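Protein 1 of 2
SEQ + STRUCT:
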Amino acid sequence: MRFGVLGTGHWAAVTQAAALSTHPSATLAGVWGRSPDKTADLASRYGVPAYDDVDALFRDVDAVAIALPPDVQAPLAVRAAEAGKHLLLDKPLALDPAAADRVVAAAAEAGVASVVFFTNRFVPSVDAFLRDNAAVGGWYAAHGTMYASIFQPGNPYAGSVWRKQHGGLWDLGPHALSVVLPLLGPVLDLSAAEGPRDTVHLLLRHEGGAASTLSLTLDAAPDATSFGFSYFGEHGATTLPEWDITPVEAFGAAVSALLDSATTGAPHACDAAFGAQVVHILAAAEKARSTSTIVAV
């Protein structure tokens, strides 16, 4: 399958293009970006064509891998789907539910496969953990903490405008939800509170009575970073395992998942519809945070 990469930033260069260039069943066929100079640099780095016209890229590939801000990603994903291209998307899928729903509708209308790269879901140890514990069932609570500190000198994401504007809720929230929803189920409603250093704390009520709490920030004190998830159920308590592969290898697994979905026609668990479900939850959390109310999803 021939892939075009949309985007020229750090993630596009060191993860997406790197994984596609070495995947045994995929070919990196071209790059398009909003900056002609950066597009040329990235294309030269991997020895592929640089495109200044995204529609020309669409004509030359079978699928796109998108590494762009979510508000830029969503309309381009719709255009790619309408052009008949399979979609390997980044999280969050969009910054508002309507835009996310348009991607889902476009993919369904065109009959193309979609996978949203929730990194944890493509790490074998995490995937096996979620599958095994979903089969066990009986989970009634989860607590997750994701305290990152990206606005430090030298961090490749320190200059990300959309991350500065939307914070950990939208950048880390998708990662957190991707490992909570498989065990506790869909979210019915939620409340939110703000804390120092742009921290947001969520209390979510799930179908069936389970509840979870998430605490998220991109701007933790450098010595106060923390990442962890604990789960509690009728059969005991457990914690999410650590990664056993690199992000590049995880993205390679996502490429394989998209290939499988495109071949079989079976939707992946992390398809655009799941990505849109996450966006709806995040939008409700944004409203809950701004209004100090309980908001239905």
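Protein 2 of 2
SEQ + STRUCT:
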Amino acid sequence: MRDLRIVFMGTPDFAVHTLKALVEHGYNIVGVITAPDRPAGRGRKLNESAVKVYAKSQNLNILQPTNLKDNGFLNDLRALDANLQIVVAFRMLPKEVWQMPKYGTFNLHASLLPNYRGAAPINWAIINGETKTGVSTFFIDEKIDTGAMILQEAIDIGPDENAGSLHDRLMHKGSELVLKTITQIKNNEVTATPQIETNNLKTAYKLNRDNSKIDWTAPMQDIHNKIRGLSPYPAAWCVLINGEDALDVKIYESKKEIAEHAFEVGHIIISNKTLKVAVRNGYIYIEKMKLPGKKLMDVKSLLNGYQFHDHAKMR
């Protein structure tokens, strides 16, 4: 059985759950690599990553390099004398980093690779209407999320599940898969298999303003999937045309109704404390929405304090 000295690399909450599992199972974490503190909020106060906050609470050795190729950082990393590196929700590593430990560097990715390589696999699985996704561990190589696969486990996606709920379930499933992967490495039982490349792989593109905008002319199911796939973050958005106002609004929750109607796509109908938008073959009911400069509200609260004009529409 191998004696493991582990360096853990990660930044957000998703990574904390795995680091916590490693600590609670008694693994020897010789170092934690996370993002530098960043100014946030109106006061521009330095904000520590979720991984750093947890690592400090456990008195773990923390490194926060700005440049992963910096000689000072590389020397500090070598001095830790790790023989295994584990990466969860971090950034792309240079070769001199990922090839350093004797037993390799493996990554946890929140998709069923080779599909949904990239920055936002949880969101895109829902946006694209998948009914299954999962978690994968693989040894890192020169490209993004392409290395030899170690283990993989699938879970079902609920028909109305949003990205926040799926994130939390995959976070738990992922930490379990990392522990199974470490056990194989510790026992020298790993069988890594190359990922199968095909021409129709789906990609988890980085989310931006353009690909987060709702297209109300799209099929009803696609609109619903986009809203839940981007909720609670970064949130699907569109333009509300209300009288003289053109407001960027964010939509966090929706329901759909198949129905025939003669309304123009995007037309807003208010009735019985509900707000629905006409789309092809039916309506999208908006359940939670955020106006610019206002807090997130359910539709009943919104309708109590905001007046929609008769010809209001979403664009």
